[in-house]
Amino acid sequence: MPTTSSSPAASRRSVLTAAAAAGGAALLPAGFITLAASPAHADDLLLSTDFSSGTTEGWAGRGAASVAVDPEQRLLITGRTATWNGAAIDITSHIEVGVRYQLKVYLRLPEGESATDLRTTVQRDVGGVSNYEGVKWNTAVTDAAWTEFSGTYSIAQAADKLQFYVESDSSLTPILLDAFTLTRIAEPEIQDLLPLKDFLADDFTFGCAVEPPEVVGKPAELLAKHFAQVTTGNQMKPESIQPTEGVFDFSRADQIVDFAEANGMKIWGHTLLWHNQTPAWWFLDENGEPLVESRAHQALLLQRLETHVKAIAAHYGDRVWAWDVVNEVVDPEQPDGLRHSRWYEVFGGPKYIEKAFKIARKAFPRKVKLFINDYNTEFPDKREAMFNLVQHLKCEGAPVDGIGHQAHVDYKRDPALLGESIDLFRELGVLQTITELDVSVSDHMEESLPATPPERLVAQGWYYKELFEVLRERADDLESVTMWGLYDAVSWLRTWPVSRPHEAPLFFDDRLQAKSAYWGVVDPTKLEPLPES
């Protein structure tokens, strides 16, 4: 990462100047770009801008922002009046369905500007509808050094227009931009390994949560080889299915469902009711005012939930065998052990949870199983709060079929904790499943490293060995185990709660290759010795 005031592109300008001199973006020679369409063994640079031509090289202001090349041949973005104002470049002609790309750019602030969080995004336009897909999430930028913003991007269906752009989290500061590259990632062959789903077939169904880009191209090949069940990571959440009241969109969820059915995979639904990723209109009355605790507003909220669930049930029927009906409603730090969300506030308590299960039971075919899902259920306080809630729901006659343990854990957390929770919930006679498993390699939540320390990947392999021993010992109690993500580059942990380029929580790396994590489950004799602590 550049650390001086000079541009990160300076050392490459002599190579790119001739191509950029004609104006517009600097493209590689046509013959080289053509090579990218054939089987590739090295990454192919498709598009690059360094502003050595003195022009903006295809970049334009977004919103109220203006762009200009400064005397040091960097793009200066000014006049921003909203956080989404910035600089954008059209990448439509370079992006193919099912191909993975790296989008990289360097950002910094002009001298004297206070540090702020910036991010990079792609606007994907299809049929007059715009979608906004993060490439690199909020990352702190200063006026003292260039910061690299790099991320993987792919599309699952053709787009009318694709624009890569820079924006901010909250600040309206001017921004400096340089050394943008768009690179086609060379896809290796999917390794000829024992499929995880086959290795674990006698224990439980092995699944994976994915987004539409993972059901095309090489990621789709990896997914079908190793997994027997899919969860639609974000595409069945309330904001995706019903972004505007009465307007339902199943298109992106259907891409995943159709792929799963074509490959003989089971389907898990996530999620019907959640405090997060739910459009604001759910909690506003007909006048646009916030809902309050009243019978009228409770009835309105339940009517909206019933309409939502019935539409989903009518669309999917029993094609989706199980649903997370309510998600993350437990908070052991509250006196009653429950999250005091907008749902809770409108109902003045947890009655909505029971109502949600009854609405779902009435809407879906009887064979569809209904789950309550939450994270940190391996910790004793959360475990107790969840146990008390499920026990109460069962006593009230709520049709709760099972509990989902998310299992977002880290490589230092005792695997026995999750086993203890599974053992406890056996007492309630409910189904159990692991719904969102990943193993963080961060030493703390705010850690952000440029690359993954190799010794942590070894330690993670041994951790997966111990964890799956715990899970397989309890195979009779588990319906399925699902990973939250197919390969490291698409993991949510890369961007939460801060930018964490080093995160590598899954079985397969950025190049879709098996890691020590895979061997920890399938053949621990192939693991390197544990690093000394």
From TrEMBL:
Signal peptide: 1-42
GO biological processes: xylan catabolic process
Gene Ontology terms, MF aspect: endo-1,4-beta-xylanase activity
Enzyme class: hydrolase
Family annotation (SMART domains): Glyco_10 (SM00633)
Catalytic activity: Endohydrolysis of (1->4)-beta-D-xylosidic linkages in xylans
Pfam families attached to this UniProt entry: CBM_4_9, Glyco_hydro_10
Annotated ranges, domain GH10: 190-524
InterPro entries membership: CenC_carb-bd, Galactose-bd-like_sf, GH, GH10, GH10_dom, TAT_signal
Enzyme Commission designation: 3.2.1.8
Keywords: Carbohydrate metabolism, Glycosidase, Hydrolase, Polysaccharide degradation, Repeat, Signal
PANTHER family hit by this protein: ENDO-1,4-BETA-XYLANASE A, GLYCOSYL HYDROLASE
Membership in a protein family: Belongs to the glycosyl hydrolase 10 (cellulase F) family.
Protein name listed in UniProt: Beta-xylanase
Organism per entry: Glycomyces luteolus
Lineage: Bacteria, Bacillati, Actinomycetota, Actinomycetes, Glycomycetales
